[in-house]
What we know:
Strand order of the largest sheet: 3-4-5-8-7
CATH topology of the largest domain: Transferase(Phosphotransferase), domain 1
Distance between the termini: 30 Å
Structural class: alpha+beta
Shape: globular
Helix content: 25-40%
CATH superfamily of the largest domain: Transferase(Phosphotransferase) domain 1
Mean pLDDT: 78
CATH architecture of the largest domain: Orthogonal Bundle
Low-confidence stretches: 1-33, 200-207, 330-351, 365-380
Number of helices: 10
Order of helices and strands: EEHEEEHEEEHHEEEEEHEHHHHH
Amino acid sequence: YPDSSHVKTHSSAPLVRNVSGSDYVYSSAEQGGLGNSRPWFSFEELAKATNGFSAHNLLGEGGFGSVYRGCLPDGREIAVKQLKIGGGQGEREFKAEVEIISRIHHRHLVSLVGYCISENRRLLVYDYVPNNTLYYHLHGEGQPVLDWATRVKIAAGSARGLAYLHEDCHPRIIHRDIKSSNILLDNNFEARVSDFGLAKLALDANTHITTRVMGTFGYVAPEYASSGKLTEKSDVYSFGVVLLELITGRKPVDASQPLGDESLVEWARPLLSHALESEEFEGLVDPRLEKNFVDSEMLQLIGIAAACVRHSSAKRPRMGQVVRAFDGLATSDLTNGMRVGESEMFNSAQQSEEIRWFRRVAFGSQDFSTDFFSQGSSNG
């Protein structure tokens, strides 16, 4: 399995810096996309790689289909997603979407490496990411507690991957199903956002997509659930729910909680407000952390989460702004070995202003101008 701390590049594709804060490669049609590798697999090859799509190789099942672990003859490990039959998409449309998706390479996104069309079957072949999902590590029974630095690292990486989809892809991509089980982790706990290849493409930056609502209960933005109106801000809301999972350790929906507290967002709203006003986190933060976190960093993460789950989509930040806020959070990977809390960036006046900015957004302060959200990113 390749070292995910390095960017996988096609030989002729340029390496650039982007709004999402990481190196990435965007291969134009002329530079290859799937054309620089052998993209097409026969059904027989994938069946052999996955031991006949055996239950032993099954990694998981979701709304789009089942995912199997596989191994190619050259030893490369893959994840094969067998899409549910009956999607109604023709072969030409399927290939066109795959070609667009295949050009996207970013250290915080799971790369698509190939596909299979066999009669009415559609399969996608991805790089295998070995360390399960964020949902598994947060909520799986008997799992070690994720420490604070690791949680920040995962949140920041996920934000960068999502910001790239929203602001650096052409056409831009709205994920539609951001959730902790779609954030895969490698052995270094680097986040890799998955399933973006199954999202709808937003072709016109000045319009929204109205479509059949897709997504996962507990993560779906209110305007998307009620009207089917889909924008990047719908993903921002879902990302905010993931941040709340990281902060609180709770599931997005938990039927075992008292009546009225089943929804993580609704339960958290008054606690978020209290934390931002008082800078006291009792009752909100995951007790398994045993207060092993830096207060100033926790405050900023709470501010970001509160802003992302604002009921009004227009008042939520864009992912580019979220990434910029994360740039001040100190983790060993983001600050060249400094421990959490030692980042000079985080203690700078600029970062203090970021905290005040997100607090104003979270509270919906009347002196805050939502025009900021429509401005271009300053991270380019």
